[in-house]
Design brief:
16 helices, 647 residues, eleven-stranded mixed β-sheet, Elongation Factor Tu (Ef-tu), domain 3, Alpha-Beta Plaits, Rossmann fold, 37 strands
């Protein structure tokens, strides 16, 4: 393929600013579908988790043709927790489209992804998207983008960027926001891509250099290394050398080469400089390795990745329900799966904690690790995870911790509770602006303080607030931050929950499950309304009496249990608790797995004396209520007392 007719572009933006929807329009208007073909929305979001959450988790490759040009597209994640994906796939691009919401303007992840693009540096084509919103302010958004370029100290040649105003949902792009929409299409954007994004550089006659930026997997061919041919050509059955991250060289042979068309792959015989391809033939490949000539190896520089900031312990499941709901339960199963993930996710780090005791998994953030947990769980694995801990470091004898730059958009009436809560989380306000009745606040907050904050924030703002954050670097240790002031409702012994017992427990706190659920000793079934944990019996039924009257039984009315997401469970637990994760369920439990180990359960059972034959059993005694002295009784009996106390 002629190098001058190739365009390699990465689409970068903040979460939910329209990247994947724009790619759908590229495919539709690029003639990649038949007129009567049914097309799935967000075609590039192929993972179930991506469709469910409405976010892009893994970078994807695709392409379409416009006139005589082949335009290769790289759809990148918008969330900073998946920044490792953005950093490496930008190496395949020769330019990028920066999407910005016409109403919201640049957001924290806009800053993050643009900073990565300018560091290479890549020419940027700005797309002010969603101009069809009722509250859109495209010219204001454009001014904010220019200020962001200046803030990031972009070189002068990149400050003169091209701009297109578009609606990815509506399927049109305009040179000016006031241009007529009738009959408009994506052609103005296509034309500016051809004009402003340069063709890929590279010498097809030079020594082969192809750096793997992404790993794919085929059940028939094994691992596929995806990258751009920087120099030279690559052919089927060609002998190559794989330059690994430890600088060693491993011989290999190319068995298959694929080019991307739309969201799929088609086999080809060879590829030249500038083309993005997927290559099969190597079993042991990782992100960042270089395919090169074995006789004249020339490895490319390794990709620098920001270090992880949050870590969790992944532990083999040892609860009483272990092995009942999945097929992958052992430490070796978990080890193999976690280390396999590190081959494709360079931002993830896995360390063994010792034989059979689990693994320390470090990542970019809470969302990064929770997505990993959910993905592994759906593949049939079961395990336990601890509460996330930030990764501290020491510089010049001073303890330092990671900080996030938090941006909050909230209605003015909810400003007070948010400011108060962020103050307790050691947040420092950097900036506050008002637009109409909306307040935008920018904070610098320790990463520890934001673990579990999102659900509280949505509750405080009645679901109307918007929060986003991006890694801001390390700073001095901010001091102690209280995670949870309330205790937990801990099950006393293995049983099946009963509606009557849960009805009585509702007054003690907030329940996480309903009746008819099997539980075990040490499992946490709710949040105590007070400080300190409470050992409970969720199977305690109603006492029977010999005095029944019509209508005397009370109806048991249960408040619906509070259903938590995986992220909520992870942020709820304290350091001495675990989240048990299986394909069928997510449970909370005491870390040592047993209430008897974590709590002392003491039962005082005084000796019961024999009463005379004249003693009559009353309804009060049968119901377990205290009785008054009866002259017919030789001995007055009260219910044996059971109580608990914390170790």
């Amino acid at each position: 393929m002629d190098q001058k007719s190739i365009r390699n572009i990465a689409i970068i933006a903040h979460v939910d600013h329209g990247k994947t929807t724009l790619v759908d329009q590229f495919f539709k208007q690029g003639g990649m579908f038949r007129e009567n073909q049914a097309v799935t929305e967000r075609l590039m979001d192929s993972m179930d988790l991506e469709r469910e959450r409405g976010i892009t988790i893994a970078a994807k490759n695709g392409s379409f043709r416009y006139r005589d040009h082949m335009i290769n597209i790289i759809d990148t994640p918008g969330h900073a927790d998946f920044g490792g994906q953005v950093e490496r796939v930008l190496r395949m691009a020769d330019g990028c489209l920066l999407l910005v919401d016409a109403q919201e303007g640049p957001m924290p992840q806009t800053y993050f992804v643009l900073k990565k693009a300018l560091a290479i540096p890549l020419p940027v084509l700005v797309v002010i998207n969603k101009i069809d919103k009722p509250a859109a302010r495209p010219q204001w958004a454009l001014d904010q983008v220019f200020d962001l370029f200046v803030k990031l100290e972009a070189p002068d040649e990149l400050l003169d960027f091209a701009v297109v105003f578009a609606s990815a949902k509506g399927g049109y792009a305009l040179d000016e926001p006031d241009d007529p929409v009738d009959g408009a299409s994506m052609v103005p954007l296509f034309e500016k891509i051809i004009a402003h994004i340069p063709p890929p550089p590279g010498d097809p006659q030079a020594v082969l250099q192809l750096q793997v930026s992404t790993i794919d997997y085929s059940p028939y061919l094994g691992k596929l290394g995806i990258g751009r041919v920087v120099n030279g050509c690559i052919n089927i059955n060609q002998n190559i050398a794989v330059a690994k991250r430890d600088h060693s060289l491993v011989p290999a042979r190319i068995t298959k080469i694929f080019r991307f068309e739309r969201d799929g792959k088609v086999p080809i015989e060879s590829a030249g400089a500038g083309e993005i391809v997927a290559v099969a033939g190597m079993d042991d490949i990782t992100v960042g390795v270089t395919f090169t000539d074995p006789d004249d190896p020339r490895p490319l520089p390794l990709i620098n990745i920001d270090p992880p900031t949050v870590a969790m312990h992944f532990i083999p499941n040892d609860s009483p329900f272990a092995g009942q709901e999945s097929k992958f339960v052992t430490s070796s199963h978990l080890e193999e799966r976690l280390f396999r993930e590190t081959l494709t996710d360079v931002a993830l780090s896995v360390e063994s904690l010792g034989a059979g005791t689990g693994f320390k998994v470090s990542g970019r953030g809470e969302l990064h690790l929770s997505i990993l947990i959910e993905k592994i769980r759906r593949e049939g694995y079961e395990f336990q995870v601890s509460r996330p801990q930030v990764i501290m470091r020491e510089e010049h004898g001073q303890l330092q911790e990671p900080y996030e730059e938090l941006t909050i958009d909230v209605d003015e009436q909810y400003r007070g509770p948010v400011i108060e809560k962020l103050g307790r989380l050691k947040g420092q306000m950097v900036e506050m602006n008002r637009h109409n009745e909306m307040i935008r606040m920018i904070y610098k907050v320790p990463t520890r303080g934001l673990i579990g904050f999102r659900s509280e924030f949505l509750t405080d703002t009645r679901g109307m607030g918007v929060m986003n954050y991006v890694f801001a670097g390390y700073g001095p240790f901010a001091g102690e931050i209280v995670n949870r002031s309330s205790g937990a409702l801990v099950v006393k012994e293995a049983c099946t929950t009963v509606a009557y017992a849960l009805f009585n427990l509702q007054e003690r706190g907030r329940l996480f499950l309903g009746p008819g659920v099997k539980v075990y000793a040490g499992q946490i079934i709710g949040e105590h309304s007070r400080a300190g944990d409470l050992v409970v019996n969720p199977a305690k039924g109603k006492k029977l009496t010999n005095m029944r009257a019509a209508g005397s039984d009370e109806n048991v009315i249960l408040t619906p249990p509070h259903r938590l997401s995986l992220e909520d469970y992870i942020s709820f637990i304290n350091d001495d608790e675990l989240v048990e994760v299986t394909p069928a369920a997510i449970r909370l439990r005491a870390r040592n797995g047993s209430a008897e180990k974590k709590y002392k359960i003491i039962s005082h059972r005084p000796a019961v004396a024999k009463a005379s034959a004249s003693v009559k059993t009353t309804a009060d005694e049968m119901a377990g209520r205290p009785t008054q002295t009866d002259t017919d009784k030789k001995i007055s009996l009260t219910k044996p007392t059971e109580f608990t106390e914390r170790e």
